[in-house]
Amino acid sequence: MEANICLEPIQPYYPVPNGRGITTGRMPEVGPRRAMLRLALLPVIAVGLVVLLLGPQADAGSESVATVSHVVKAGETLWSIASAHTAPGEDVRRTVALIRSANGMPSGTVKAGVTIAIPVGEIPGWRTRAGS
């Protein structure tokens, strides 16, 4: 007895909402309105990616802040270090925040022997007094 064997590849079946299916391996044709929409979105997506990738880097090195190094001694706290580097009449809390930001400190705890950077001079984006 001889078996009938089909050697043709089986095409995938893609159901669609109206009940008919696409039995070929090709994707359905895209209408002209949808094609125009895709073409219009390409430049918008490209500009968005450029801004997303290059935007933060453009601002990153534009303004540098002068710093001094300080080696933490036994018994010193971040507050005592900040108050020693704060100008008279200025808020010590501001200096603490600047030191923490410059060193990436998650808390205000410092350990003896560690070297920290202390921003000095005019800091871009920070007000020097409450009235200015």
Give descriptors for this structure.
132 residues, alpha+beta, two-stranded antiparallel ribbon, two-stranded antiparallel sheet, 4 strands
In short:
Helix 2 (78-84) packs across helix 3 (92-103).
Please report the total strand number as a whole number. Answer: 4
Strand order of the largest sheet: 1-2
Briefly note the structural class of the backbone. Answer: alpha+beta
Spans with pLDDT under 50 lasting ≥5 residues?
Answer: none
Q: How far from one another are the termini?
A: 100 Å
- Secondary structure tally, helices: 3
Silhouette: elongated
The major beta sheet can be summarized as:
2 strands, antiparallel
Helix/strand order: EEHEHHE
Average pLDDT, all residues: 75
Task: Give Rg in angstroms.
Answer: 32 Å
Q: In percent terms, what proportion of residues is strand?
A: 5-15%
Helix content: 25-40%
